[in-house]
Design brief:
Blueprint (H helix, E strand, L loop, with lengths): L33 H8 L5 H7 L5 H7 L4 E14 L2 E13 L4 E9 L2 H14 L2 E2 L21 E5 L2 E7 L6 E2 L5 H7 L4 E6 L5 H13 L13
Parallel strand pairs: 7-8
Antiparallel strand pairs: 1-2, 2-3, 3-4, 5-6, 6-8
C-alpha cells in the first residue's frame, strides 16, 4: 500500500515565549553570604532591611524577598567583534525590574544567545536594585499617598539630564515613553519630567531616570520631635 505523505505546514514555527523571571525555588536555594543566610532564616523579611544590613551579592535574595518581581526588556542590540578568526556576533540586552512598590533596578547582559543575555541582564539588575522614596505630588493634599515623587529631583547619566517634578493625581505619567516603564515598575503613577541632552540612547535615558529616583533617598530630613 502506498504510504501517504503528510504535508508540513508552511511558514515559521510558532515562537515559544519564555518568562522573563522564572519561578524561584526557595527550598533548593543554598545561600553563600551571611546576608543570604539571614534572609532564608527569616531574620530579615523586607528588602529595605536587607539594604541596611549590607550589600546584596546574591540575586536569589531579591527573589526570596520579592516573589512577584516584574521585569521588562528595554533594549536589545546585536554587537560584532572582529578578530583574526573572523567576526563574532553577540547580543546585548538591557532589562529593568521592579515590584511597583518603591524598588527598581536596571542591568545589562551580553551573550551569543539572546535568552542567555536576557537572563544575565535580569541577574545584574537584581544586584543593582535601589529603594526610592515616594510621596504626594499635590501641595494641597495632606495625605500620605505615595503616587508621585515628594519633591523635584535630578538624575544624570553621561551627558543626559532627567528632571522629575511632582504631579497631583489625574496627571498620569507625563514623561517620555522610554522611561514610562521605569515609573510604572517603581510604583509612581503621577509625575512630570524635563530632559536635556541626547535621549536617543535608551539605556542612558533609563539610568538617568533611575538615578533621579535614587537621589530622592539621599536627601537628609529631620525627624519630627515627639511632643
Amino acid at each position: 500500500m502506498p504510504i501517504e505523505k503528510r504535508e508540513r505546514p508552511k511558514g515559521r514555527r510558532p515562537r515559544v515565549e519564555r518568562p522573563l523571571n522564572p519561578p524561584f525555588d526557595r527550598d533548593a536555594w543554598v545561600p553563600k553570604t551571611q546576608l543570604g543566610k539571614k534572609v532564608k532564616a527569616g531574620e530579615i523579611t523586607t528588602l529595605d532591611d536587607a539594604f541596611k544590613t549590607g550589600k546584596i551579592m546574591e540575586p536569589q535574595i531579591i527573589d526570596f524577598l520579592i516573589p512577584d518581581l516584574k521585569a521588562k526588556v528595554i533594549d536589545v542590540k546585536k554587537t560584532t567583534r572582529v578578530t583574526r578568526a573572523g567576526r563574532h556576533f553577540s547580543f546585548r540586552v538591557s532589562v529593568i525590574i521592579g515590584d511597583e512598590n518603591g524598588h527598581i533596578g536596571a542591568g545589562t547582559g551580553k551573550n551569543s544567545e539572546r535568552f542567555s543575555a536576557q537572563e544575565k541582564a535580569i541577574q545584574d539588575a537584581k544586584l543593582n536594585m535601589v529603594s526610592i522614596k515616594r510621596g504626594s505630588g499635590s501641595w494641597e493634599s495632606n495625605t500620605d499617598d505615595d503616587n508621585s515623587v515628594p519633591y523635584m529631583t535630578l538624575g544624570k547619566c553621561a551627558s543626559l539630564r532627567v528632571e522629575l517634578i511632582p504631579a497631583p493625581k489625574g496627571v498620569g505619567l507625563a514623561v517620555s515613553d522610554t522611561i514610562k516603564p521605569v515609573m510604572e515598575l517603581a510604583g509612581i503613577t503621577n509625575v512630570w519630567s524635563k530632559t536635556r541632552g541626547a535621549t536617543d540612547t535608551k539605556l542612558n535615558f533609563v539610568r538617568a531616570a533611575i538615578n533621579a529616583l535614587e537621589n530622592l533617598s539621599k536627601l537628609k530630613t529631620l525627624d519630627k520631635k515627639e511632643e
